[in-house]
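Priority: medium. Attachment 1 of 2:
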């Protein structure tokens, strides 16, 4: 009787241990709604599944909603940008180097239960773009040139996503830095993914793009030089809830290994495969992971 009880108890303990281990391997990966973030969410999901994790991917979220979901425990991890956390989430407006920005957000977000792992070499900063031929004709190579033309009454039309239009590292502070205004009537708000097409099709004169957008070259755009260094460094970095890391001690090493494979050229190429070559996000992610020997 005692022996049977012990065997039963041991079996229950082992079953509980297995169930707990399995539970600890469940992670929810988040992502924002534009191409680069969709790729990063899919890369992470496929990579972690290959490492034995059960992954629930939830992409397509806005920045504020994604961060709120992570702080609330609905999202375990996603790739955030150092500049976004510094300015948007932590309200720090001081100009900092890339290294100082990373150190600061790592410190500030730790108090919120979030751990910044190793940053990638991706600097996914914003840029204002124009059609190259149009910029040459108008004599605009920098944001200061653009400001001078606008102050002289050029009335150029800008395409911007709604988030940049309103956020604290967005359009209004940029205009204040360079001393001009597009004017409300000349700002067209649209989905991030539609800006490049609108600019190419001459629906607007200037477009807000990510500097690593794969369409810049193929659409014959030029990125205007940010000659007053308005835009901060936006290093893409895996950010994970501390509670999740505590349950999954191997997660940090896995994500750091992935982060080490990513830089500007890689990300620009991946973006281009989706936006120009029209490959699926799933196909692009799988090809990169296999090509890098990560799966």
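Attachment 2 of 2:
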């Amino acid at each position: 009787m005692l022996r049977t009880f012990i065997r039963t108890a041991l079996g229950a303990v082992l079953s509980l241990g297995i169930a707990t281990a399995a539970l600890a391997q469940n992670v929810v990966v988040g992502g924002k709604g534009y191409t680069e973030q969709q790729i990063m969410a899919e890369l992470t999901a496929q990579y972690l599944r290959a490492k034995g994790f059960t992954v629930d991917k939830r992409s397509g979220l806005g920045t504020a909603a994604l961060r709120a979901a992570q702080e609330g425990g609905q999202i375990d991890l996603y790739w955030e940008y150092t500049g976004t956390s510094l300015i948007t989430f932590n309200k720090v407006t001081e100009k900092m180097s890339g290294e100082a920005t990373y150190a600061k957000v790592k410190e500030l977000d730790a108090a919120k239960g979030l751990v910044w792992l190793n940053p990638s070499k991706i600097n996914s900063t914003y840029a204002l773009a124009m059609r190259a031929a149009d910029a040459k004709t108008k004599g605009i190579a920098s944001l200061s040139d653009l400001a001078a033309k606008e102050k002289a009454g050029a009335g150029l039309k800008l395409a911007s996503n709604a988030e940049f239009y309103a956020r604290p590292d967005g359009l209004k502070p940029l205009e204040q830095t360079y001393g001009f205004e597009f004017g409300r009537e000349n700002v067209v708000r649209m989905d991030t993914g539609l800006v490049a097409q609108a600019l190419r099709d001459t629906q607007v004169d200037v477009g807000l793009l990510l500097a690593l957008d794969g369409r810049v070259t193929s659409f014959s755009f030029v990125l205007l030089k940010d000659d007053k260094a308005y835009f901060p460094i936006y290093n893409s970095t895996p950010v994970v809830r501390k509670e999740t890391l505590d349950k999954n001690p191997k997660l940090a090493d896995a994500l750091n290994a992935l982060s080490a494979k990513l830089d500007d050229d890689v990300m620009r190429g991946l973006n281009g495969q989706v936006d120009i070559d029209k490959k699926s996000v799933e196909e692009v992610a799988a090809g990169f992971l296999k090509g890098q020997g990560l799966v």
